[in-house]
């Protein structure tokens, strides 16, 4: 009998044992978040400062998912150029993936999906600000496993509006993924680093077509 699981209930254990997903700690697997990042302009830095001021105001109360997307995620997508061709943004798309043993189906809805034609570039899953972005990693990985882009790398970002984790997935004989360190809004220049990584991924993937 086939078991169906909501994507927001799936665990890393499910993905590892049903989809053979493996995590690698090899730094050469995911160099895109670590070096050779674009320099931010003064205007971009000013926009990020405004985002941080908005979040500081919102932190005085519970920040719900839609507020996070509006105040933080949307400006980051805009500044990184992912609202412009060759990319476009789709929200709340349905996905379905099936395990290799055909005993489990994971179903869910994508929160924000940035696309280039049929290439899934970034999956961004906003969570309530009270929760660590780690709780969204299995869900985002399940969406990335369903991406119909062959052997090309797939990238993801999980954020609760103040914390950010990037993911990279490559599907070969065995799906393999790696994650960045956790970036924290208000710590050093972490929000700037998040934007730099997004801009780098956008420029890199935009040249693949």
Let me know the number of strands.
Answer: 11
Shape annotation: globular
Q: Calculate the mean pLDDT score and round it.
A: 85
Give the tally of structural domains: 1
Count every helix, treating DSSP H or I runs of 4 or more residues as helices: 5
Percent range of helical residues: 25-40%
Distance between the termini: 41 Å
CATH class: Alpha Beta
Characterize the largest beta sheet: strand count, sense, and whether it forms a barrel. Answer: 8 strands, mixed
CATH architecture descriptor text: Alpha-Beta Complex
Question: In percent, how much strand structure appears in the residues?
Answer: 25-35%
Could you say what the CATH topology is called? tt1808, chain A
Whole-angstrom Rg? 17 Å
Structure summarized in a few sentences:
The protein has 209 residues and is of the alpha/beta class. Helix content is 31%, strand content 26%. Helix 2 (42-58) runs antiparallel to helix 3 (65-79).
